[in-house]
Amino acid sequence: MPRIELEQIEEIDDVDQRSSESFDRIAFAQRALALVKPARTTVAICEGARRVRVEAGRQWGGAPGERWAILSVPRDASRRAIARAVLELASSARPWALDVLMAGAP
């Protein structure tokens, strides 16, 4: 019988996790995903309760290597925490992406 494999990507444990700054956190996460474009990954973004969190797993019924991910973004998440979570979904290292995301922030 097949087993469902869930992979929980490490929660960001960072003092920069929260921010009182006023901005659309979901829209920021969408822009970050558009920039990083995680390969062969379907990502759902939702409002989270406490911390920025990413959960990912294999896409059953999909081609080998395809996966899904859920990005939970709380109302008080910082830009840096969101950007770092999105970068964890990227299959290749993109050291410039965090700088681009933070520089593009209003």
Summarize the SSE layout with pairings.
Elements: E1 6-9, H1 25-36, E2 41-47, E3 53-58, E4 67-73, H2 79-89, H3 95-103
Parallel strand pairs: 2-4
Antiparallel strand pairs: 1-3, 3-4
Helix pairs in contact: 1-2, 2-3
Descriptive overview:
- This protein is α+β, with helices and mostly antiparallel strands and 106 residues long.
- It contains 3 helices and 4 strands.
- The protein has a 4-stranded mixed beta sheet with strand order 1-3-4-2, with helices on one face.
Concise description?
This protein is 30% helix and 23% strand. With 106 residues, it is α+β, with helices and mostly antiparallel strands. The longest helix is centred in the N-terminal third of the chain and has 12 residues, at 25-36.
> Could you state the order of secondary-structure elements as H and E?
EHEEEHH
Count of helical stretches:
3
Main sheet attributes: strand count, strand direction, barrel closure: 4 strands, mixed
Radius of gyration: 14 Å
Share of β-strand residues: 15-25%
Q: What's the β-strand tally?
A: 4
Helix content: 25-40%
Distance between the termini: 50 Å
How many distinct folded domains?
A: 1
Shape, principal axes of CA atoms: globular
Please identify the structural class as seen in this structure: alpha+beta
What low-confidence regions span 5 or more consecutive residues with pLDDT below 50? none
In spatial order, strands of the major sheet run 1-3-4-2
Task: Please tell me the overall pLDDT.
Answer: 80
